[in-house]
Description:
29% of the residues lie in helices and 30% in strands. It is of the alpha+beta class. The chain has a single domain, classed as Anthranilate synthase (4-Layer Sandwich), CATH 3.60.120. The strands form 3 sheets. Strands 1, 2, 6, 7, 8, 9, 10, 18, 21 and 22 form a 10-stranded antiparallel beta sheet that branches. Helix 4 (126-141) packs across helix 10. The longest helix has 18 residues, at 242-259.
Amino acid sequence: xxxxxxxxxxxxxxxxxxxxxxxxxxxxxxxxxxxxxxxxxxxxxxxxxxxxxxxxxxxxxxxxxxxxxxxxxxxxxxxxxxxxxxxxxxxxxxxxxxxxxxxxxxxxxxxxxxxxxxxxxxxxxxxxxxxxxxxxxxxxxxxxxxxxxxxxxxxxxxxxxxxxxxxxxxxxxxxxxxxxxxxxxxxxxxxxxxxxxxxxxxxxxxxxxxxxxxxxxxxxxxxxxxxxxxxxxxxxxxxxxxxxxxxxxxxxxxxxxxxxxxxxxxxxxxxxxxxxxxxxxxxxxxxxxxxxxxxxxxxxxxxxxxxxxxxxxxxxxxxxxxxxxxxxxxxxxxxxxxxxxxxxxxxxxxxxxxxxxxxxxxxxxxxxxxxxxxxxxxxxxxxxxxxxxxxxxxxxxxxxxx
Length: 402
C-alpha cells in the first residue's frame, strides 16, 4: 500500500486529486485520500445488530490485507445511525496521508455565484416537523425521555448532475477547522447510479493515537450572525443558557461514562468552551484520556459511544425508538460516523452531520436539533434551518425560507 508520511508541507495537492469514488477525510491533524477498494469488510447477514462483531470483522479484514502484501492497511468508510443497517467499510487499494489542508490548497470557493436551479422538497414539511418536536416534548414531560434529537431532510433535484468534487472543495474552504469528508456509497457490482456521502462535520466522535484517546462532544448551539456585535451576543448567551448547558452536560456525561470502562485515566473539564463554524456556535467539551489496554481499537471506542445523546437522545434506546416512530424518513448515514482505523487500532471517527447523500442529480441534506424540556418547537425548526446552511452555502444557495 502506498502511504505518504505526514509532513509540514503537502507534497501532493490531495484535494485536487480527489475523484468521485475515493475516500477523503481532512481533519485539523491530517488529510487522508484512499483510492480504489481492495477488500470490503463483510456484512453479517445472520445478525440483526450489525455493530455486533464488527470490530472482529474489521480486524480480520486488515490481517487479510497484510497477508496479501499491503503495508499498513487501513479500513475506511461510514457507519449508519441505525445499528440494524450495515456499515460501508473497505480497505482502499492505495492510501495517501499528509498534513492538514493548507490555505494555498483550499483557496476560495468557486462556481457558487450561479448555482444550478434546484427543486426543493421538505421532508417533513416544517409544520410536520414542529408536530414531531411537540411529540418529543410530550414524551419528555411524561418522564419517558430526558432528551431526543429530531431531524429533518431536504431533497434537492437539479437538471444537471451534482459537481461532487467542487462541492467538496467548497466545504473544505468554508470549514477549515472541522472535518471535511467524502465516502463512496456504491455496492460493488450492484450500483447503477454513483452515490456518495459528503459533508463537513464540526464534531469528533473519538480518535486514538497509541494509548491517547480524545473525544469532543458538541451539544447546545446558536446560529451565527453577520453582525459582529450580534454574533458575540449570541455566543455569550449560549455560554450562559441553562437549557443549553443542561443539554450539553447530558451528552458529556454519557460520553465520559461510555469511555470510562476502557480508560486507565480520563479527564473531563468542569465546564464547556465555545467553538464556531461558518454558520453555528457550539458548546464544546474535549474529553481526553489514556487507554487501559492497547488492544482496544478506535473503532471499538466509537461503537461504544455511538450514538451519543448529541445525535440521538437519552436514554439512548428509548430515544432511538422514538426517533424511528416520529421521523418520516430514513436517516441513512446521517448521525452515524465516518472515519478510519488501522491494524494497530489507531484511527479517527467523526460524527456524520452537516452532510448530504448525493446521487447523480439528487441530494438529500439533513439537520437535527436536540429537544429537552425547555425547548420550543419553532426554535428547534430554526436551528435545523441554520445547520442546513453549511451544505447550502457550499452549493451556492444562500436563502432557505422554511
